[in-house]
């Protein structure tokens, strides 16, 4: 299957899901807590059902792994879905939520799409094809290729992390970025130099690992690998990556 065809399918499916999610968002929803203590709304489940139905109609042999509805099927091709990343934002009426779609083929992410309907933006990447940002709905004239920064010294770097405890572990010589709801967007735009994101699940990280790598950056998980299912890790502009890994005492892999 051609990655361009898969990307187009991701676009078409995400657009349908975005319209449904936006309707729920504008109407207002309340969140309840799941067994793991994270919030969920009726919109999360409805959007994931739509994503699965549309993708499975086009790719009936593919498997799925989603935040709300779990795993379905077995295949070398797995669609990884987060129907509403940022449910807390969503339920509070804050526009900084996103729909995540990633396609893994034989364990490697080949297609990534992040859509932010309420912000009217989207970001996508294909392996070997680069990372891009555009308006949503997409317009060719409002599309740009993404590139991470070229900062080469920690003294000049601007870093961010998921929480205050993680921020305290970053090299003291580097500046701290102001808190942002979209730090990985800032990284692929070249506005910050690294983001430490230890935590969360494969559906939170899978699209962003590819987006960062295709924008020229690097990602290392907490085991020293590049997997999106190891509870997050370090994203950076690549030039600073080795210095940051050493500072964080991440395990080195040959």
From TrEMBL:
Presence of the UniProt keyword Electron transport in the record: no
Keyword Phosphoprotein set for record: no
Signal peptide: none
Domain of life: Bacteria
Keywords of this entry: Hydrolase, Magnesium, Metal-binding
InterPro entries in the record: Inositol_monoP_metal-BS (IPR020583), Inositol_monophosphatase-like (IPR000760)
Pfam families per record: Inositol_P
PANTHER family, sorted: INOSITOL MONOPHOSPHATASE, INOSITOL-1-MONOPHOSPHATASE-RELATED
Name of this protein: Histidinol-phosphatase
Organism: Kribbella alba
Gene: hisN_1
């Amino acid at each position: 299957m051609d990655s361009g065809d898969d990307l187009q399918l991701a676009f078409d499916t995400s657009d349908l899901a975005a319209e449904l999610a936006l309707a729920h968002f504008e109407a207002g929803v309340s969140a309840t807590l799941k067994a793991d203590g994270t919030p969920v709304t009726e919109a999360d489940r409805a959007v994931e059902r739509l994503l699965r139905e549309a993708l499975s109609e086009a790719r009936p042999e593919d498997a799925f792994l989603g935040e709300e509805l779990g795993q379905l099927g077995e295949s070398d091709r797995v669609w990884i879905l987060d129907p509403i990343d940022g449910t807390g934002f969503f339920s509070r009426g804050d526009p900084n939520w996103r729909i995540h779609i990633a396609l893994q083929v034989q364990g490697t992410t080949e297609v990534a799409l992040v859509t932010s309907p309420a912000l009217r933006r989207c970001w996508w990447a294909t392996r070997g094809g680069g990372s891009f940002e555009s308006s949503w709905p997409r317009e060719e004239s409002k599309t740009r290729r993404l590139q991470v920064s070229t900062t080469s010294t920690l003294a000049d770097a601007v870093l961010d992390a998921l929480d205050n405890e993680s921020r305290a572990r970053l090299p003291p010589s580097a500046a701290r970025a102001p808190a942002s709801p979209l730090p990985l967007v800032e990284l692929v735009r070249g506005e910050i130099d690294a983001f430490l994101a230890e935590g969360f699940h494969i559906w939170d990280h899978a699209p962003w690992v590819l987006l960062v790598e295709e924008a020229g950056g690097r990602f290392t998980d907490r085991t020293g690998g590049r997997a999106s299912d190891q509870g997050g890790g370090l994203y950076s502009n690549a030039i600073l990556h080795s210095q940051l890994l050493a500072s964080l005492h991440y395990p080195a892999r040959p």
